[in-house]
Write a structure and sequence with these properties.
Layout lengths: L1 E9 L2 E9 L9 E10 L1 H8 L15 E9 L9 E5 L14 E4 L5 E2 L6 H23 L8 E4 L5 H12 L3 E6 L5 H7 L1 E6 L1 H4 L10 E6 L3 H9 L1 E9 L13 H5 L3 E4 L7 H14 L5 H4 E5 L3 H9 L6 E5 L1
Parallel strand pairs: 8-9, 8-11, 9-10, 11-12, 12-13, 14-15
Antiparallel strand pairs: 1-2, 3-4, 3-6, 3-15, 4-5, 5-7
Length: about 325
């Protein structure tokens, strides 16, 4: 038997229940694992509270992130005792996830836990940190460098934003953090932000082209914030878009792209191939001070996951939530 959050949608409505399940309830997969730590991401919070159409198959065990130890494997790359790490691949959406003491997964989805991190430290980063690393790698791949000017990070006090600030500051960028939580300015400066601005300066509709400022942007918000960030990006600049906290719409013009040569790069963390995942986690292992993770992340016991998810969606959470399984 193992303990897990089980979500179900029936004629009686939605239900999220922390319950005990038999091992034979686990779905198909070639690697059975003990989950030591998971995390709460925006997508997990939507699933746990049923405030967004995340779950595509019922019943579902949520949790898109996990780290722990292999218990049993028929996959050639994994054996009992190996330390593993998982982000995405539809886990928690179409396949039972990691807000659970046990999981059965496809071995191709897993990567080795980097030696630089414990399972908890890896989940302090989780999909948010991994996505931030993908954003920074995309900026570098498209030629953005600190000598070109400032970099803007939107949604800065969230998980992706927090890690992105730390990574970019490590590489010598002058980071400007946009946030709706100006009371977190000291926290953002500890991560490496040189300047903190109010998100409202970017969230209202603006002109198609605005005064050039940013050499690069990491945007987690979408909607008018992303539009204004593009409109303020300097000639030849790069914008990495990875989130929709402010909305899925993109009410923009083509002006920044055809008149200033701005590159807009979409970042998907769910279906990245293994090589790209390993490269992103290598960057995190090389560039993130493990001590910094204690400032970015806070622990939540498994039984408090739903309450913490509600706080996350209500904007009451700074940084990352690590779920102690």
């Amino acid at each position: 038997m193992f303990t897990a959050w089980r979500l179900d949608q029936t004629d009686q409505g939605f239900r999220a229940e922390l319950t005990s399940l038999p091992d034979d309830a686990l779905p198909s997969g070639d690697v059975t694992v003990a989950v030591e730590y998971s995390s709460l991401n925006y997508k997990d919070a939507l699933a746990l509270t049923n405030r967004g159409p995340v779950v595509r198959r019922w019943p579902m065990v949520p949790g898109i992130d996990g780290a722990g130890t292999v218990l049993h494997s028929t996959h050639p790359d994994w054996r009992a005792g190996d330390k593993w790490l998982l982000n995405g691949w539809g886990v928690g959406e179409t396949h039972w996830g990691c807000l659970s003491q046990r999981a059965r997964l496809n071995g191709d989805w897993l990567i080795p836990l980097p030696a630089a991190f414990t399972a908890r430290q890896a989940m302090a980063l989780g999909t948010a940190g991994y996505t931030a690393a993908l954003c920074v790698l995309a900026l570098q791949r498209h030629g953005a460098s600190p000598g070109q000017g400032e970099v803007l990070v939107t949604g800065a006090s969230g998980g992706v934003g927090s890690v992105a600030i730390a990574l970019l500051a490590k590489h010598g960028w002058r980071v400007v953090a946009s946030t709706g939580k100006l009371q977190e300015e000291a926290y953002l400066r500890q991560l490496g932000a040189a300047e903190v601005i109010d998100r409202h300066s970017l969230s209202a509709p603006g002109k198609p082209l605005q005064k050039e400022r940013w050499a690069a942007v990491v945007d987690t918000v979408g909607s008018h914030t992303l539009v204004n960030a593009c409109a303020q990006t300097r000639w030849g600049g790069v914008v990495a878009a990875c989130g929709l906290a402010g909305g899925m719409d993109f009410p923009a013009t083509v002006a920044p792209f055809i008149l200033r040569g701005v590159t807009l790069v979409g970042i998907d963390s769910v279906m990245q191939p293994k090589a790209a995942r390993c490269k992103a986690w290598q960057k995190l292992a090389e560039d993130i001070d493990a001590g910094l993770l204690d400032r970015i992340a806070q622990d939540v016991p498994l039984e408090q996951a739903v309450a913490a998810a509600q706080d996350l969606l209500d904007g009451k959470v700074r940084g990352r939530l690590v779920v102690r399984i």
